[in-house]
Amino acid sequence: MSDDCAVSAKGLQRRFAAVQVLRGLDLEVARGQAVALFGPNGAGKSTLLRTLAGLLRANDGVVRIFGETLPATGELRRRIGYLGHESFLYRDLTARENLAYYARLFSIDIGRAQAALVEVGMERFADRRVATFSRGMLQRVALARVFLHDPELLLLDEPLTGLDPQGAEVLASMLVERRKRGTTILMATHDLERALACSTRALVLARGRVAWDSGTQMPSAAAMAGLYAGAVAAA
Amino acid sequence: MLALIWKDIVLEARTRETLPALFVLGVLILVAFHFSLAMRPEDVSRVASGILWVAIVFAAILALGRTFVIERDSGCIEGLLTSPVDRGSIYLAKLTVNTILLLAFEVLLVPVFALFFDVPLFAHPLRLAAIMAAGTVGIAATGTLFALAALGTRAREMVLPLLVLPLQAPLLIAAVQATELVLQGSTLDGLGVRGTLLVSFDVLFVTAGWLLFEFVLVD
Protein backbone atom coordinates (compact mmCIF):
# COMPACT_ATOMS: atom_id res chain seq x y z
CA MET A 1 0.00 0.00 0.00
CA SER A 2 1.46 3.36 -1.01
CA ASP A 3 1.66 6.38 1.30
CA ASP A 4 -0.97 8.25 -0.69
CA CYS A 5 -3.56 5.54 -0.05
CA ALA A 6 -6.37 6.71 2.21
CA VAL A 7 -8.39 3.49 2.28
CA SER A 8 -7.23 -0.03 1.62
CA ALA A 9 -9.45 -3.08 2.03
CA LYS A 10 -8.21 -6.56 1.12
CA GLY A 11 -10.30 -9.73 1.08
CA LEU A 12 -13.05 -8.10 3.12
CA GLN A 13 -15.74 -10.55 4.23
CA ARG A 14 -18.78 -9.80 6.36
CA ARG A 15 -21.68 -12.11 7.20
CA PHE A 16 -24.92 -11.42 9.02
CA ALA A 17 -26.04 -14.82 10.30
CA ALA A 18 -26.18 -16.97 7.16
CA VAL A 19 -26.18 -14.02 4.75
CA GLN A 20 -22.80 -13.22 3.20
CA VAL A 21 -22.83 -9.49 2.42
CA LEU A 22 -19.19 -8.72 1.60
CA ARG A 23 -17.43 -11.48 -0.37
CA GLY A 24 -13.70 -10.85 -0.42
CA LEU A 25 -13.98 -7.21 -1.41
CA ASP A 26 -10.76 -5.46 -2.46
CA LEU A 27 -10.60 -1.68 -2.65
CA GLU A 28 -7.96 1.03 -2.68
CA VAL A 29 -8.81 4.71 -2.57
CA ALA A 30 -6.06 7.30 -2.96
CA ARG A 31 -5.94 10.39 -0.78
CA GLY A 32 -8.02 13.19 -2.25
CA GLN A 33 -10.18 10.93 -4.41
CA ALA A 34 -13.95 11.40 -4.34
CA VAL A 35 -15.52 8.02 -4.98
CA ALA A 36 -19.18 7.53 -5.87
CA LEU A 37 -20.31 4.09 -4.75
CA PHE A 38 -23.26 2.70 -6.69
CA GLY A 39 -25.02 -0.61 -6.43
CA PRO A 40 -28.42 -2.24 -6.00
CA ASN A 41 -30.02 -2.70 -2.60
CA GLY A 42 -28.20 -5.38 -0.65
CA ALA A 43 -24.98 -5.02 -2.66
CA GLY A 44 -22.99 -4.25 0.50
CA LYS A 45 -22.52 -0.45 0.21
CA SER A 46 -23.69 0.37 3.72
CA THR A 47 -21.89 -2.62 5.22
CA LEU A 48 -18.68 -1.51 3.52
CA LEU A 49 -19.00 2.06 4.82
CA ARG A 50 -19.89 0.89 8.34
CA THR A 51 -16.90 -1.43 8.33
CA LEU A 52 -14.59 1.37 7.17
CA ALA A 53 -16.04 3.61 9.90
CA GLY A 54 -15.19 0.97 12.50
CA LEU A 55 -18.81 0.25 13.41
CA LEU A 56 -18.67 -3.34 12.16
CA ARG A 57 -15.87 -5.85 12.46
CA ALA A 58 -15.03 -7.72 9.27
CA ASN A 59 -15.26 -11.51 9.57
CA ASP A 60 -12.17 -11.74 7.42
CA GLY A 61 -9.81 -9.44 5.55
CA VAL A 62 -7.79 -6.37 6.46
CA VAL A 63 -8.80 -2.71 6.41
CA ARG A 64 -6.27 0.08 6.60
CA ILE A 65 -7.24 3.73 6.86
CA PHE A 66 -4.37 6.18 6.32
CA GLY A 67 -2.01 3.23 6.82
CA GLU A 68 -3.48 2.24 10.20
CA THR A 69 -5.10 -1.18 10.50
CA LEU A 70 -8.60 -1.24 11.99
CA PRO A 71 -9.91 -1.25 14.69
CA ALA A 72 -9.31 2.48 14.73
CA THR A 73 -7.67 4.35 17.55
CA GLY A 74 -9.23 7.53 18.86
CA GLU A 75 -6.76 9.57 16.81
CA LEU A 76 -7.79 7.79 13.61
CA ARG A 77 -11.51 8.21 14.37
CA ARG A 78 -10.83 11.94 14.67
CA ARG A 79 -9.79 11.93 10.98
CA ILE A 80 -12.99 10.21 9.78
CA GLY A 81 -16.49 11.62 9.32
CA TYR A 82 -19.32 9.10 8.92
CA LEU A 83 -22.90 9.76 7.88
CA GLY A 84 -25.20 6.79 8.35
CA HIS A 85 -28.85 6.14 7.60
CA GLU A 86 -29.83 7.77 10.88
CA SER A 87 -29.11 11.32 12.00
CA PHE A 88 -27.15 10.50 15.21
CA LEU A 89 -28.88 13.56 16.74
CA TYR A 90 -30.62 13.70 20.12
CA ARG A 91 -34.27 14.64 19.62
CA ASP A 92 -34.57 16.61 22.84
CA LEU A 93 -31.48 18.76 22.26
CA THR A 94 -31.48 21.72 19.89
CA ALA A 95 -29.45 21.64 16.68
CA ARG A 96 -26.84 23.91 18.28
CA GLU A 97 -26.66 21.78 21.44
CA ASN A 98 -26.25 18.62 19.37
CA LEU A 99 -23.36 20.10 17.40
CA ALA A 100 -21.78 21.61 20.52
CA TYR A 101 -21.93 18.14 22.11
CA TYR A 102 -20.18 16.55 19.14
CA ALA A 103 -17.65 19.40 19.07
CA ARG A 104 -16.78 18.58 22.69
CA LEU A 105 -16.46 14.87 21.85
CA PHE A 106 -13.98 15.78 19.11
CA SER A 107 -12.23 18.33 21.38
CA ILE A 108 -12.75 21.18 18.95
CA ASP A 109 -13.96 24.75 19.51
CA ILE A 110 -17.73 24.65 20.11
CA GLY A 111 -17.94 27.90 18.15
CA ARG A 112 -17.57 25.74 15.02
CA ALA A 113 -21.10 24.50 15.63
CA GLN A 114 -22.48 27.87 14.49
CA ALA A 115 -20.30 27.93 11.37
CA ALA A 116 -21.38 24.37 10.50
CA LEU A 117 -25.06 25.31 10.84
CA VAL A 118 -24.55 28.34 8.59
CA GLU A 119 -22.84 26.15 5.99
CA VAL A 120 -25.86 23.83 5.72
CA GLY A 121 -28.34 26.72 5.86
CA MET A 122 -29.79 25.80 9.26
CA GLU A 123 -28.70 28.78 11.36
CA ARG A 124 -32.30 30.05 11.64
CA PHE A 125 -33.29 26.79 13.33
CA ALA A 126 -30.23 26.48 15.56
CA ASP A 127 -32.17 26.79 18.81
CA ARG A 128 -35.05 24.53 17.88
CA ARG A 129 -35.24 21.01 19.24
CA VAL A 130 -34.32 18.40 16.67
CA ALA A 131 -37.58 16.53 17.42
CA THR A 132 -39.44 19.29 15.54
CA PHE A 133 -37.38 18.98 12.34
CA SER A 134 -38.50 17.49 9.04
CA ARG A 135 -36.48 14.67 7.43
CA GLY A 136 -34.61 17.10 5.18
CA MET A 137 -33.77 19.46 8.06
CA LEU A 138 -32.50 16.51 10.08
CA GLN A 139 -30.30 15.47 7.18
CA ARG A 140 -28.83 18.96 6.91
CA VAL A 141 -27.92 19.02 10.60
CA ALA A 142 -26.59 15.46 10.32
CA LEU A 143 -24.33 16.67 7.49
CA ALA A 144 -23.22 19.61 9.63
CA ARG A 145 -22.26 17.08 12.32
CA VAL A 146 -20.18 15.07 9.84
CA PHE A 147 -18.34 18.12 8.51
CA LEU A 148 -17.95 19.73 11.95
CA HIS A 149 -14.49 18.39 12.78
CA ASP A 150 -13.21 18.81 9.22
CA PRO A 151 -12.37 15.12 8.67
CA GLU A 152 -9.78 13.97 6.14
CA LEU A 153 -11.97 11.00 5.13
CA LEU A 154 -15.71 11.34 4.56
CA LEU A 155 -17.84 8.19 4.51
CA LEU A 156 -21.32 9.20 3.39
CA ASP A 157 -24.16 6.68 3.17
CA GLU A 158 -27.04 8.06 1.09
CA PRO A 159 -26.25 11.70 1.94
CA LEU A 160 -28.93 13.03 -0.43
CA THR A 161 -31.77 11.28 1.40
CA GLY A 162 -34.52 13.72 2.31
CA LEU A 163 -32.75 16.77 0.90
CA ASP A 164 -34.70 19.17 -1.29
CA PRO A 165 -33.01 20.37 -4.53
CA GLN A 166 -31.53 23.37 -2.71
CA GLY A 167 -30.18 21.12 0.05
CA ALA A 168 -28.71 18.77 -2.54
CA GLU A 169 -26.96 21.74 -4.19
CA VAL A 170 -25.54 22.84 -0.83
CA LEU A 171 -24.22 19.32 -0.23
CA ALA A 172 -22.71 19.12 -3.72
CA SER A 173 -20.87 22.41 -3.28
CA MET A 174 -19.62 21.31 0.15
CA LEU A 175 -18.29 18.06 -1.32
CA VAL A 176 -16.58 19.82 -4.24
CA GLU A 177 -15.00 22.34 -1.87
CA ARG A 178 -13.73 19.53 0.45
CA ARG A 179 -12.42 17.56 -2.51
CA LYS A 180 -10.42 20.60 -3.67
CA ARG A 181 -8.92 20.80 -0.17
CA GLY A 182 -7.74 17.18 -0.44
CA THR A 183 -10.45 15.42 1.57
CA THR A 184 -11.02 11.80 0.55
CA ILE A 185 -14.69 10.99 -0.01
CA LEU A 186 -16.60 7.72 -0.32
CA MET A 187 -20.27 8.29 -1.02
CA ALA A 188 -22.88 5.55 -1.44
CA THR A 189 -25.90 6.76 -3.38
CA HIS A 190 -28.46 5.90 -6.05
CA ASP A 191 -28.40 9.41 -7.55
CA LEU A 192 -26.05 8.86 -10.50
CA GLU A 193 -26.14 12.38 -11.88
CA ARG A 194 -25.48 14.31 -8.68
CA ALA A 195 -22.88 11.85 -7.42
CA LEU A 196 -20.91 11.85 -10.67
CA ALA A 197 -20.90 15.66 -10.71
CA CYS A 198 -18.87 15.83 -7.52
CA SER A 199 -16.79 12.65 -7.81
CA THR A 200 -13.48 11.74 -9.43
CA ARG A 201 -14.11 7.99 -9.56
CA ALA A 202 -17.12 5.71 -9.68
CA LEU A 203 -17.52 2.15 -8.44
CA VAL A 204 -20.34 -0.33 -8.81
CA LEU A 205 -20.75 -2.83 -5.99
CA ALA A 206 -22.70 -5.99 -6.65
CA ARG A 207 -22.98 -9.18 -4.60
CA GLY A 208 -20.43 -7.96 -2.08
CA ARG A 209 -17.62 -7.17 -4.51
CA VAL A 210 -16.47 -4.32 -6.72
CA ALA A 211 -18.15 -5.20 -10.03
CA TRP A 212 -16.97 -2.18 -12.01
CA ASP A 213 -14.41 0.58 -11.48
CA SER A 214 -14.23 3.72 -13.61
CA GLY A 215 -10.62 4.41 -12.72
CA THR A 216 -9.82 7.97 -13.74
CA GLN A 217 -12.11 7.92 -16.79
CA MET A 218 -15.37 9.27 -15.40
CA PRO A 219 -18.41 8.39 -17.52
CA SER A 220 -21.34 10.68 -18.16
CA ALA A 221 -24.54 10.07 -16.18
CA ALA A 222 -26.22 8.66 -19.26
CA ALA A 223 -23.37 6.25 -19.96
CA MET A 224 -23.18 5.35 -16.28
CA ALA A 225 -26.75 4.02 -16.26
CA GLY A 226 -25.85 1.46 -18.94
CA LEU A 227 -22.52 0.58 -17.33
CA TYR A 228 -24.26 0.14 -13.99
CA ALA A 229 -26.90 -2.20 -15.38
CA GLY A 230 -24.26 -4.23 -17.22
CA ALA A 231 -22.00 -4.54 -14.16
CA VAL A 232 -24.87 -5.65 -11.92
CA ALA A 233 -26.10 -8.19 -14.46
CA ALA A 234 -22.61 -9.65 -14.92
CA ALA A 235 -21.89 -9.94 -11.17
CA MET B 1 -16.53 12.45 29.40
CA LEU B 2 -17.95 15.67 30.84
CA ALA B 3 -19.78 16.30 27.56
CA LEU B 4 -21.48 12.92 27.85
CA ILE B 5 -22.48 13.52 31.47
CA TRP B 6 -23.78 17.02 30.64
CA LYS B 7 -25.82 15.70 27.71
CA ASP B 8 -27.44 12.89 29.73
CA ILE B 9 -28.32 15.20 32.62
CA VAL B 10 -29.80 17.84 30.28
CA LEU B 11 -31.88 15.17 28.53
CA GLU B 12 -33.19 13.77 31.82
CA ALA B 13 -33.96 17.29 33.09
CA ARG B 14 -35.91 18.03 29.89
CA THR B 15 -37.79 14.79 29.44
CA ARG B 16 -38.19 13.84 33.14
CA GLU B 17 -38.73 10.27 32.00
CA THR B 18 -36.72 8.29 34.53
CA LEU B 19 -36.66 9.89 38.00
CA PRO B 20 -40.45 10.21 38.48
CA ALA B 21 -40.92 6.60 37.33
CA LEU B 22 -38.27 5.40 39.79
CA PHE B 23 -39.89 7.32 42.64
CA VAL B 24 -43.35 5.93 41.93
CA LEU B 25 -42.00 2.37 41.73
CA GLY B 26 -39.98 2.82 44.93
CA VAL B 27 -42.97 4.18 46.86
CA LEU B 28 -45.20 1.37 45.55
CA ILE B 29 -42.74 -1.22 46.84
CA LEU B 30 -42.61 0.49 50.24
CA VAL B 31 -46.42 0.67 50.39
CA ALA B 32 -46.72 -3.03 49.53
CA PHE B 33 -44.27 -4.04 52.27
CA HIS B 34 -45.75 -1.61 54.79
CA PHE B 35 -49.21 -3.11 54.52
CA SER B 36 -48.19 -6.74 54.07
CA LEU B 37 -45.76 -7.05 56.99
CA ALA B 38 -47.27 -6.63 60.43
CA MET B 39 -44.01 -6.06 62.31
CA ARG B 40 -43.36 -5.71 66.00
CA PRO B 41 -41.33 -2.55 66.72
CA GLU B 42 -38.24 -4.61 67.69
CA ASP B 43 -38.28 -6.36 64.28
CA VAL B 44 -38.46 -3.19 62.24
CA SER B 45 -34.76 -2.26 62.20
CA ARG B 46 -33.87 -5.86 61.24
CA VAL B 47 -36.28 -6.06 58.30
CA ALA B 48 -36.34 -2.42 57.20
CA SER B 49 -32.89 -2.36 55.62
CA GLY B 50 -33.86 -5.31 53.39
CA ILE B 51 -37.03 -3.53 52.27
CA LEU B 52 -35.09 -0.36 51.47
CA TRP B 53 -32.55 -2.23 49.33
CA VAL B 54 -35.25 -4.24 47.53
CA ALA B 55 -36.85 -0.94 46.51
CA ILE B 56 -33.49 0.43 45.36
CA VAL B 57 -32.48 -2.67 43.39
CA PHE B 58 -35.80 -2.95 41.54
CA ALA B 59 -35.89 0.75 40.73
CA ALA B 60 -32.27 0.51 39.58
CA ILE B 61 -33.21 -2.21 37.09
CA LEU B 62 -35.72 0.20 35.60
CA ALA B 63 -33.21 3.07 35.45
CA LEU B 64 -30.28 1.04 34.17
CA GLY B 65 -32.38 -0.51 31.42
CA ARG B 66 -32.82 2.99 30.01
CA THR B 67 -29.11 3.84 30.07
CA PHE B 68 -28.55 3.27 26.38
CA VAL B 69 -32.09 3.73 25.11
CA ILE B 70 -31.43 7.42 24.40
CA GLU B 71 -28.27 6.44 22.56
CA ARG B 72 -30.12 3.88 20.45
CA ASP B 73 -32.73 6.41 19.28
CA SER B 74 -31.69 7.97 15.97
CA GLY B 75 -28.52 5.84 16.04
CA CYS B 76 -26.75 8.18 18.47
CA ILE B 77 -24.64 5.31 19.82
CA GLU B 78 -22.95 5.19 16.40
CA GLY B 79 -22.21 8.91 16.58
CA LEU B 80 -20.57 8.23 19.91
CA LEU B 81 -18.62 5.23 18.61
CA THR B 82 -17.25 7.11 15.61
CA SER B 83 -16.00 9.91 17.87
CA PRO B 84 -12.46 9.77 19.29
CA VAL B 85 -13.77 9.32 22.84
CA ASP B 86 -12.13 6.44 24.67
CA ARG B 87 -14.59 3.55 25.22
CA GLY B 88 -13.69 3.33 28.89
CA SER B 89 -14.63 6.99 29.29
CA ILE B 90 -18.07 6.28 27.79
CA TYR B 91 -18.56 3.63 30.48
CA LEU B 92 -17.37 5.93 33.27
CA ALA B 93 -19.65 8.74 32.04
CA LYS B 94 -22.69 6.46 31.90
CA LEU B 95 -21.79 5.02 35.31
CA THR B 96 -21.54 8.55 36.75
CA VAL B 97 -24.94 9.55 35.33
CA ASN B 98 -26.58 6.35 36.59
CA THR B 99 -25.06 6.83 40.04
CA ILE B 100 -26.26 10.47 40.20
CA LEU B 101 -29.74 9.40 39.08
CA LEU B 102 -29.99 6.59 41.64
CA LEU B 103 -28.65 8.79 44.44
CA ALA B 104 -31.23 11.46 43.55
CA PHE B 105 -33.90 8.75 43.68
CA GLU B 106 -32.65 7.58 47.09
CA VAL B 107 -32.70 11.15 48.45
CA LEU B 108 -36.40 11.24 47.54
CA LEU B 109 -37.15 7.70 48.72
CA VAL B 110 -35.43 7.65 52.11
CA PRO B 111 -37.73 10.23 53.81
CA VAL B 112 -40.78 8.27 52.58
CA PHE B 113 -39.17 5.10 53.91
CA ALA B 114 -38.55 6.72 57.31
CA LEU B 115 -42.18 7.80 57.41
CA PHE B 116 -43.55 4.32 56.65
CA PHE B 117 -41.27 2.23 58.85
CA ASP B 118 -40.38 4.60 61.68
CA VAL B 119 -36.70 3.65 61.76
CA PRO B 120 -33.93 5.94 63.05
CA LEU B 121 -32.55 6.62 59.56
CA PHE B 122 -31.27 10.05 60.44
CA ALA B 123 -29.53 9.11 63.70
CA HIS B 124 -26.27 8.58 61.79
CA PRO B 125 -26.87 10.25 58.42
CA LEU B 126 -23.25 10.27 57.22
CA ARG B 127 -22.74 6.58 57.93
CA LEU B 128 -25.99 5.72 56.21
CA ALA B 129 -25.07 7.92 53.23
CA ALA B 130 -21.70 6.17 52.93
CA ILE B 131 -23.31 2.71 52.88
CA MET B 132 -25.94 3.78 50.37
CA ALA B 133 -23.37 5.45 48.12
CA ALA B 134 -21.14 2.34 48.16
CA GLY B 135 -24.09 0.05 47.40
CA THR B 136 -25.37 2.36 44.66
CA VAL B 137 -22.01 2.56 42.87
CA GLY B 138 -21.85 -1.26 42.80
CA ILE B 139 -25.39 -1.57 41.45
CA ALA B 140 -24.72 1.10 38.81
CA ALA B 141 -21.36 -0.44 37.84
CA THR B 142 -22.80 -3.88 37.05
CA GLY B 143 -25.98 -2.47 35.54
CA THR B 144 -24.21 0.00 33.22
CA LEU B 145 -22.00 -2.73 31.78
CA PHE B 146 -24.80 -5.22 31.22
CA ALA B 147 -27.37 -2.67 30.04
CA LEU B 148 -25.37 -2.34 26.84
CA ALA B 149 -25.10 -6.11 26.40
CA ALA B 150 -28.85 -6.43 26.97
CA LEU B 151 -29.57 -3.64 24.46
CA GLY B 152 -28.47 -5.87 21.61
CA THR B 153 -30.97 -8.59 22.55
CA ARG B 154 -34.64 -8.75 21.59
CA ALA B 155 -36.01 -9.10 25.13
CA ARG B 156 -33.67 -6.61 26.78
CA GLU B 157 -36.09 -5.78 29.63
CA MET B 158 -36.06 -9.47 30.57
CA VAL B 159 -32.37 -10.06 29.95
CA LEU B 160 -30.97 -7.24 32.10
CA PRO B 161 -32.36 -8.49 35.44
CA LEU B 162 -31.30 -12.06 34.57
CA LEU B 163 -27.75 -10.85 33.97
CA VAL B 164 -27.31 -8.39 36.84
CA LEU B 165 -29.37 -9.65 39.77
CA PRO B 166 -27.31 -12.82 40.38
CA LEU B 167 -24.12 -10.75 40.10
CA GLN B 168 -25.44 -8.14 42.53
CA ALA B 169 -26.45 -10.72 45.17
CA PRO B 170 -23.21 -10.50 47.23
CA LEU B 171 -23.34 -6.70 47.08
CA LEU B 172 -26.98 -6.68 48.10
CA ILE B 173 -26.37 -8.99 51.08
CA ALA B 174 -23.46 -6.83 52.27
CA ALA B 175 -25.46 -3.61 51.79
CA VAL B 176 -28.50 -4.94 53.67
CA GLN B 177 -26.41 -6.16 56.59
CA ALA B 178 -24.29 -3.00 56.71
CA THR B 179 -27.41 -0.79 56.68
CA GLU B 180 -28.93 -2.88 59.48
CA LEU B 181 -25.79 -2.49 61.59
CA VAL B 182 -25.68 1.28 60.99
CA LEU B 183 -29.35 1.54 62.00
CA GLN B 184 -28.41 -0.26 65.21
CA GLY B 185 -25.69 2.34 65.86
CA SER B 186 -22.58 0.62 64.47
CA THR B 187 -19.67 2.73 63.24
CA LEU B 188 -18.24 2.17 59.73
CA ASP B 189 -15.23 0.43 61.31
CA GLY B 190 -17.62 -1.93 63.02
CA LEU B 191 -19.03 -3.20 59.71
CA GLY B 192 -16.13 -5.60 59.29
CA VAL B 193 -16.22 -7.85 56.25
CA ARG B 194 -19.45 -6.27 54.98
CA GLY B 195 -17.77 -2.90 54.50
CA THR B 196 -14.77 -4.53 52.84
CA LEU B 197 -17.06 -6.48 50.50
CA LEU B 198 -18.97 -3.34 49.49
CA VAL B 199 -15.81 -1.41 48.63
CA SER B 200 -14.16 -4.41 46.92
CA PHE B 201 -17.24 -5.05 44.80
CA ASP B 202 -17.26 -1.41 43.67
CA VAL B 203 -13.57 -1.41 42.78
CA LEU B 204 -13.83 -4.76 40.98
CA PHE B 205 -16.86 -3.92 38.84
CA VAL B 206 -15.92 -0.33 38.04
CA THR B 207 -12.51 -1.57 36.85
CA ALA B 208 -14.01 -4.52 34.96
CA GLY B 209 -16.61 -2.29 33.28
CA TRP B 210 -13.98 0.25 32.28
CA LEU B 211 -11.75 -2.45 30.77
CA LEU B 212 -14.43 -4.63 29.16
CA PHE B 213 -16.78 -2.00 27.78
CA GLU B 214 -14.98 -1.79 24.44
CA PHE B 215 -15.63 -5.48 23.77
CA VAL B 216 -19.36 -5.07 24.37
CA LEU B 217 -19.61 -1.97 22.16
CA VAL B 218 -18.70 -3.00 18.60
CA ASP B 219 -21.26 -4.94 16.47
Provide the succession of SSEs of chain A: EEEHEEHEHHHEHEHEEH
- CA-to-CA gap between the ends of chain A? 27 Å
* Number of discrete helical segments of chain A: 8
**In total, how many beta strands of chain B?**
0
- Global outline of chain A: globular
Radius of gyration of chain B: 18 Å
Kindly state the percentage of residues in helix of chain A.
Answer: 25-40%
Structural class estimated from helices and strands of chain A: alpha/beta
Low-confidence stretches of chain B: none
> What distance lies between the first and last C-alpha atoms of chain B, to the nearest angstrom?
22 Å
Largest interface: A-B, 30 and 25 residues
Helix content of chain B: over 70%
Number of helices of chain B: 9
Which shape of chain B, going by the Cα principal axes?
A: globular
Keywords:
heterodimer; A: 235 residues; alpha/beta; Rossmann fold; 6-stranded mixed sheet; 4-stranded antiparallel sheet; 8 helices; globular; B: 219 residues; mainly alpha; 9 helices
TL;DR of this structure?
By secondary structure, chain A is α/β, with parallel strands linked by helices.
Give the helices and strands, then pairings:
The complex is a heterodimer of chains A (235) and B (219).
Chain A: E1 5-16, E2 19-30, E3 34-38, H1 45-52, E4 60-65, E5 68-69, H2 74-77, E6 80-83, H3 95-105, H4 112-119, H5 135-147, E7 153-157, H6 165-180, E8 184-188, H7 192-197, E9 201-206, E10 209-213, H8 221-234
Parallel strand pairs in A: 3-8, 3-9, 6-7, 7-8
Antiparallel strand pairs in A: 1-2, 1-4, 4-5, 9-10
Helix pairs in contact in A: 3-4, 4-5
Chain B: H1 2-15, H2 19-36, H3 41-65, H4 69-72, H5 76-81, H6 87-117, H7 125-151, H8 156-183, H9 193-217
Helix pairs in contact in B: 1-6, 2-3, 2-6, 3-6, 3-7, 3-8, 6-7, 6-9, 7-8, 7-9, 8-9
